[in-house]
Every structure is written in C-alpha cells, then in structure tokens.
Amino acid sequence: MTFRPFLLSLLFASCMTADVQPDKKDNAPESVYADSHLMFPQVFQENIDTNVQVSRYIRRIYQDRADHLWFGTNDDGVCWYDGTNFTYYRQSEGLGGNTVRGIVQDKKGDFWFATNGGLSRYDGKNFTNYTVKDGLPDNECWSLFLDSKGRIWTGTLRGVSRYENGKFTSITLPEADNTGSSRFSPFLVWCFYEDKNGNFWMGTDGAGMVKYDGTLFTNYSKKDGLTADNILAIQADKNGQLWLATWGNGVIRYDGKTFTGFTEKDGLAGNTVWTISTDNEDNLWFGTLGGGASRYDGKTFTTIMETRGQTRNHIQSIYQDRKGTIWFGFSGGLFKLNNGKLENVWKRMNAGC
Q1: Which of 61, 236, 269, 326 is most exposed by smallest CB count within 10 Å?
Q2: Which pTM was predicted?
C-alpha cells in the first residue's frame, strides 16, 4: 500500500466574541507542570490564559444522551458544556480528583469519571466516590469503559476492576511472557475496546495487548509480531480490523492474523499516539505527541496541526459529536473543525463561543 503524506494547513480561527482576545506570548518559556507524581504528559505551556481557555489540557471528550459534551481535564476536573455555558465540577464540588481520564454514562443515566482520586459517580445532583476502601485496586484510575452488558470497567495503576451489581471485582490479567518497558506499571491498562463479537481488548503499559473472550485471556506482545508493548488506545476500522496506538512506535493494524506497523515514515504525524477515533465517513483519526492529528482514509495520512504557535500540538482526545463536528483536546485548549477551519473554543466568562 502506498501512502501519500501531505500537510493540510488549516487556518486558525478563534471564536468571535465581544471580548478582547488574550495577548499572544509566542516566546513563553516551557516549564514542567505536575500536580501528582503520575501526571501524563508532564510538559505544558504556562502562558495559557485559563480565564479564556476551557483548560490547559483536555484529556477526554464525551457526548451524553442529551447531546451535551463533557470534557475531562488534567487539573480542572470535568467540564460540562450545554452548547452555551461551561460548568465545572472539581473536588470542591464533590468529584474524587481533579484529573479526569475517562467518562461514561451508564444505562441508568448516571455519569462515571475515572480520576486520580478513584472512581466518581454523578447522578445529576450528588457525587459518590469509590476508592480502594470500596474494592478498587488503586485510586489512580487511568481508563474507563462501559461494556454491552452495562458493566463498568476501569484500569488502575495496580490492575483492572469491574463494577457490577453494586460491587467491584478485581480482574487478574495473565503475566506477559516478555514484559516491555513500562511508563508506570505493567499492571496498568491504558484502554479497553469491545468488538462486535463481544471480545474484550485491553492495551497495557508494557505488557502488550490482552484479549478476553469472557472465559480465557490471550496475551499479545512483541514475540507475536507487535512492534510495541505499550498500547495507549484501541479502535476498530470499518472492516473490523483493530488499530493500536503506541508509545513511540506509531500505530499498529491487526487483521486477526498479522500485525502491520505505520510510523512517521508512512505519513503518520508522530510516532507517539495517544488516541484513536473514527468519523462518519469511516476515516481514522490519530492524536499524536507534538505532531497534531493524522486523518487516515484507508490510503493516505493527512496531517492537521495548529499553526499559530498557541499549542504544542499534543492531542490526547478526538471526538466527533452527533452533529458531525470533530473536537480536539489540544495542549493549549479546546478546538474544533468548523467549515474546514481549526477553531479555538473559549469559555469566556463561563460562556461558550
């Protein structure tokens, strides 16, 4: 297969408001930002105006049944957006932790948030927080998934837990034959994916990928053809093939038999890929570390970047809402594609653009 990479230069357009836009600081120094020893990523720009931007980093984007959007942030808790107003929920409002790495809405309509302080459930009025005291393996929750049976899965620093019928059950994953390099822990599951046959796929921090068919676990690692053992995201394409995002080794396509890797040499925007998403036209989207986003139509990778220097072009979340708008969580704020232009979405005094 031949790939014809090219750069799609998108005009950068800020939301038009009556307010004066913040001063742009092109040469602001980089600095380390970490509110916990496990912050990821750890480097941020400090010149971001948090009075204007939704947050300095949007880790997760989720649309609820009422078509409202939720944004999980790195240090501002979770933000609810009704199309006009932004409402923040932090620890001060009852949330378990101010870092939100996963969001789902269960069959009852309650919201669940994976935080750095455990799991939080929100019924629209009150928060209920779950920690190791309630059966979680660890309070650092890194991933969250609602399966087809209505069960809540979370990946913590010390293993996987499943919530069903009011209680947590620890899930012991098989030990990998040759554990690779872990950023934090080989017991950490970065992501979950359920295929059309009900199989569960889990991407780990150094122990490759794990398949669970409801009874048996199967581990896949470099010895099986994977080009990396650190899998940050898993998503199926229109043909049912799995795509895996890796730390430092691009993306991997798995057709059920063979693993095929794609890197910057093939047109991918960056070799560290945090997130994978699909759109209504069956394109795959990859959010990278420092390279912006790649859109893949099955033949060609197209790179989409913020070009004004407002961000570091780190993208950890990509999401298409039900109206067809594609949203991006950048290092530097919230963006969306609007009529072919990359637009920065401001909160502006608790009001949307």
Answers
A1: 236
A2: 0.85
